[in-house]
Every structure is written in C-alpha cells, then in structure tokens.
From TrEMBL:
It comes from Siminovitchia fortis. The keyword Lyase applies. The modification N6-(pyridoxal phosphate)lysine is found at K315. It comes from the Bacteria. This is Glutamate decarboxylase. Pfam families: Pyridoxal_deC (PF00282). GO terms for biological process: L-glutamate catabolic process. Keywords: Decarboxylase, Lyase, Pyridoxal phosphate. GO terms for cellular component: cytosol. Its EC number is 4.1.1.15. It catalyses: L-glutamate + H(+) = 4-aminobutanoate + CO2. GO terms for molecular function: aromatic-L-amino-acid decarboxylase activity; glutamate decarboxylase activity; pyridoxal phosphate binding. Belongs to the group II decarboxylase family.
C-alpha cells in the first residue's frame, strides 16, 4: 500500500505565504486514496500551518495589536506587516496619475524603473568610489550646456542638485558673490545687494532673498503685463542689483517671460550708465521644453547677458524626483571661492552644492533618458503633452462657465478662470473639491499681488497624461459643473 503522508513541515518562501512545495500538497489532497477517502480527511492533522500564517488579516498576528505612530516600537514587526502598514496608509494619498497639480514626473517606463531600483544604493557624492557615476554626471552637464548654446560647453561649470530649488539658490549665490567681488575691486560697499524678480516668481527666490540677506525688488504682474517686462526691470535696477531673475515657464500660468527683450533692455542700460547687470534664467520647467518645441526662441546662452540657467530634471526632464541642474555660461561666471575641495572621501573632490550625500540614481536616469529619447524623442514626448494641453484648453474655453487665462502654447500647461457673473453660488475652489470626488487633483489659487482678485485653475499635462484620460477628465469636469449648477438651482 502506498503512503501519501507528508512527514515534514513545509518551508515557506520569503516572497509569499505559499509553501515552496505547494504542488505536493495539491497533488496529495486531491489524489484518490485506495480506501475511497481523500488524503485531505485522513491526514489533515499533518497539514497544520505555522500559527503566524493561520490567521487573516495580518494585523491580528502577535505583536500587531496596535501601531505606534509617534515613537519607535520596542519590538519589530514581521516584514509583511510593516510593508502592509505603509502600503495601506499610502493608499489614502491621491493617485499620481490623476494629479494635474504637479509638474513633477510620476511615471517612467519599466526599464527605467528597473534601473532606478538597481542604482538606488549609490551615493552621488562618493566620486572617488564611483568614478563612472561621476563621469556620467559630467556628461549630463556637458549635454545641457550644449543644448543651451554655451559658448564652450566642454569647459564651462555646472552641477547636479536635488531639484531646481537648490539650483536656484546656487545661481543666486553666484550672482551675489560676483557682485561683491566687483564692488570690492571698485572700493564700494557691499552691504545693500538687491535682486529683481517678478511677483509671480517661484517661492524659492523669496527664500533666497531672505536666507542670504538680499533685498527682493518685485515687478508686479498686471492684466496688461502678465509676466516680468523690461520696463518694470529698468525702473528697479541700480548699482546694487546683483541680477535679474527671469522665468522660462511661470509656475502660476506656464507662460515664458520675454527674456530676449529684457536682455536687450539691460544691454542698453549698460551703454547708458555702465551698469552691468546679469540675468539668471529659472528654466525649471521650460529648460526641457523650449529647446524642442520652440527651437527658434532666443532665451539661453545665445544671450551674453544670461550667465546661469537652472532646470528640473524631475519635471519635463522626465526623471523621478529629486533632480535639478545648474549650468553657467562660462567657467569664470562661477566664483572659485564658492567651490570646496573635499579630501576625506578618498580623493581631492571639488563640490559646490547645499546638500552632500544623496542618491545617484536620478542622475543616471537622466543620462538614460538622453540616450533613450535623444532630441527627437524629447520633441515627440513634449509635443504630445502640448497637443493634449491645447485640446483640453480649447474644449474648456468652449464651456459656458469658463474663460482661458493661458492655453498651453508655451509649456504644456494651461489655466482658466470663472466667467464674471456666471454664478455667485460656487467658485473654482468648490469645483476643485468636486473634481476630487472623481480622483482628479486640480489646484485653484489666486494670482500674485495686483491680480490677487483673480482666481484661476491650472492643469499641468505630463507625459503620462494621455488623450484618453483627457476625454475622461472633460467628462468628469462637465459632471462636476452640473452638480454645482444643480446646487445653485436648489438654493434658488
């Protein structure tokens, strides 16, 4: 007589809760016994699971009666439990695919995801230990310098950063230090630096002015001048101006500021007064869009007045956060006394950054994108996003309640406002909340000073926002408006 007893305790796979030899159980459970009874009934006493795997859900296992959120527990949890706790809480976040508020990349192709995971353990600052990573970082700097028409792209200075915010800080520091050096050579005081900004500038520049004690001078945007203009710049410029910050892709609206016109006005100012005021271009979003969608636009190092440019690799550079870049037009535009030489990492390594240790994966993913897409690929991705943006903006402009503020002709970003007099019973903040019922995250916010009475909504179209999703969004937007309008009628 054959015996089908299972005489050993099953070993469990580390990847799931099934025994490695599960097929033997299945075979023995269902194979008819010679006495007509299945082995399941005859031998079930031999098939007991370990206690910790005999109860569902996971949280009733020993030691998981409660989770301490504000202090470290004395005893650790099983791997599966810790994973599930974190994963469950993350399920309460919004869906990144439906987040139309963020400029930040939320999707990369599976090959990039694999590369990201494989490279996550490298520290970018360890250039002596990871020389090839350092070489690839340097290649990216040269590629960007060439893309932005630096006179000598293979010899200028640049750095990768944790994002455009850090890159802006570095660009501002270089402006201030260059101004201080020039003033000292002239025997003039250096205690009252100022910087000229648009009132619609990113908050990082307000932080820069505060942290590094530079007076911010704002050119307020108006309905007639919705972005920084040369007239407003010249009205504020003087001998203490360390630079003018222009924006290639305003966060509020997606508009490009007229950088070429501002540079020309500053050239004329220097001819008249001798004041040599440099420009920094905050191209956090536009630096990876304009070279491909608006190649004839003059905004970069083709203008001698432009001394530095920053960009976010994790925005339209199509890389996961956080990654930024800053490039200087010429090596001498970055003062040498801002660069530190570090010897305790195994070599004499120059570093210029506000951070120190950080992941190298994003830098390597940027290089992957350069290789994977090339100029033609970047054009196709950005053009597709812009096509979706312009389709949506046109459709929304044709809806009764709205009028466009921007249409996505610069960045693939558009915005709209509620028509004056359409309703007094709901506003764009109500619409934003109503869209969340469908999962969409669309911000509503007031414009900067002098236009703060205008509230707009903005949509950022990224590379994972397809035309199919655009149609669904329009349907949900129409439904949201209908719900709000019906509430109006109910109140009336």
């Amino acid at each position: 007589m054959y015996s089908y007893y299972i005489k050993y305790r099953p070993y469990l796979s580390p990847f799931n809760s099934y025994p490695l030899n599960w097929y033997k159980y299945y075979y023995n459970f269902h194979r008819p016994a010679r006495n007509g009874r299945s082995d399941w009934f005859t031998h079930r006493k031999h098939l007991m699971w370990p206690h910790e795997f005999s109860i569902n859900p996971l949280f009733v296992r020993k030691g998981e009666e409660s989770v301490q959120h504000l202090r470290m527990p004395n005893q650790g949890a099983p791997t599966e439990n810790a994973y599930k706790i974190v994963r469950d809480e993350m399920a309460l976040d919004g869906n990144p695919l439906l987040n139309l508020a963020t400029f930040v990349t939320t999707w990369m192709e599976p090959t990039a995801d694999r590369l990201h995971l494989e490279l996550a353990n490298k520290n970018l600052i360890n250039k002596e230990e990871y020389p090839q990573t350092a070489a690839i970082e340097e290649r990216c700097i040269r590629i960007l310098a060439d893309l932005w028409h630096a006179p000598r792209p293979h010899h200028t200075m640049g750095a990768s950063t944790t994002g455009s915010s850090e890159a802006c800080m570095l660009g501002g520091l270089a402006l201030k230090r260059r101004w201080q050096h020039a003033r000292k050579k002239q025997g003039k005081p250096t205690d009252r630096p100022n910087i000229i900004l648009s009132s619609a500038v990113h908050v990082v520049w307000k932080k820069f002015a505060n942290y590094w004690e530079v007076e911010p001078r704002y050119v307020n945007i108006t309905p007639d001048h919705p972005s920084l203009d040369s007239k407003g710049v010249l009205a504020l410029a003087d001998e203490n101006t360390i630079g003018v910050v222009t924006t290639l892709g305003v966060t509020y609206t997606g508009l490009y500021e007229p950088i070429e016109k501002i540079a020309k006005a500053l050239d004329e100012l220097q001819e008249r007064t001798g004041l040599d005021i440099p420009i920094h271009v905050d191209a956090a979003s536009g630096g990876f869009v304009a070279p491909f969608l608006q190649p004839d636009l003059v905004w970069d190092f083709q203008l001698a007045r432009v001394k530095s440019i920053n960009v976010s690799g994790h925005k339209f550079g199509l890389v996961y956060p956080g990654l930024g870049w800053i490039i200087w037009r010429e090596a001498e535009d970055l003062p040498e006394d801002l660069i530190f030489q570090v010897s305790y990492l195994g070599g004499n390594i120059p570093t210029f950054s506000l951070s120190f240790s950080r992941p190298s994966a994003q830098v390597l993913l940027q290089y992957y994108n350069f290789l994977r897409l090339g100029k033609d690929g970047y054009y196709k991705v950005q053009k597709s996003s812009q096509s979706v943006a312009k389709y949506l903006s046109k459709a929304i402009s044709e809806m009764g309640p709205f009028e466009l503020f921007t249409d996505g002709s610069d960045l693939p970003v558009f915005s709209w406002r509620l028509k004056e007099g359409y309703t007094s019973n709901w506003n764009l903040y109500d619409l934003s909340r109503q869209l969340r019922a469908f999962g969409w995250q669309v911000p509503a916010y007031p414009l900067p000073p002098d236009m703060e009475n205008i509230t707009i909504m903005r949509v950022v179209v990224r590379n994972d926002f397809s035309m199919n999703l655009a149609h669904i969004f329009l349907m949900n937007l129409t439904q949201a408006v209908s719900v709000l309008d019906s509430l109006d009628r109910h109140k009336m």
